[in-house]
Amino acid sequence: MEPCRGALADILLVLDNASHTAARPGTTRLLAVSKTRTSSEIAALAAAGQRAFGENYVQEALPKIDDLHGHGLEWHLIGHLQSNKADVAARAFDWVQSVDRIKLVAALARHRPSDLPPLNVLLQVNIDDETGKHGCDPQAIDALADAVSAESRLLLRGLMAIPAPFDDMARRRDAFRAMRRLFDALQSRHPGIDTLSMGMSEDFAPAIEEGATMVRIGSALFGPRPAKR
Ligand SMILES: *Cc1c(COP(=O)(O)O)cnc(C)c1O
């Protein structure tokens, strides 16, 4: 596959424009979502200057993290994390964006190696109250945040959400706005947090306008995902 330099440049331009519209120039980070992509596709994007990559599955990510060791990349786990994989995740990733229960906090803290910097943590929020979806209830944020803050091997960085994919962009904006309010409330209790991760290929510009500081983009960068293997 061709290196996706063109797509990367296009996305960085839209990202920059949206950040200006939101009066927050230069504050939004791009996470390249590399699930289903090969190590060589990731290496091509890294060569074009992209540093942060997101993966959904621990087992799929491990060989890629290994292959690309030495490229100075930053790895984010953005998919649901089962408690029995917390030990592996705590060693392999730099960030876990999908923390949504107390049990996971303790497991990640216990397994984060002492020779690595603290693991960066985002709390995933089920903002549209979708049944069967992962993420914590908004009411649970404070207790989870306090639990993360109490762990020296974890660093609380903020919140993450995957809003319901409404066709109506106004409804998606409602979810982004609600997340922004939750983020601001959390920041008043935990002034060190700096990351609100929301917005994907189809809706990252409105997400930034509503307050996202990190957007997670897969298909718009790498092309449509191959059919499920
Ligand atoms: C796949 C995925 C993305 C990226 O989705 P695209 O529509 O391909 O940009 C972002 N966040 C999460 C949690 C995902 O699973």
From TrEMBL:
Locate the N6-(pyridoxal phosphate)lysine modifications and list their residues: K35
Could you tell me one molecular function GO term of this UniProt entry? pyridoxal phosphate binding
The record's listing under Gene3D superfamilies reads: Alanine racemase
User: What is the protein name given in its UniProt record?
Assistant: Pyridoxal phosphate homeostasis protein
Question: Known Pfam families for this protein?
Answer: Ala_racemase_N (PF01168)
The organism's lineage is: Bacteria, Pseudomonadati, Pseudomonadota, Gammaproteobacteria, Lysobacterales
Q: Which UniProt keywords apply?
A: Pyridoxal phosphate
| HAMAP family (alphabetical) | PLP_homeostasis
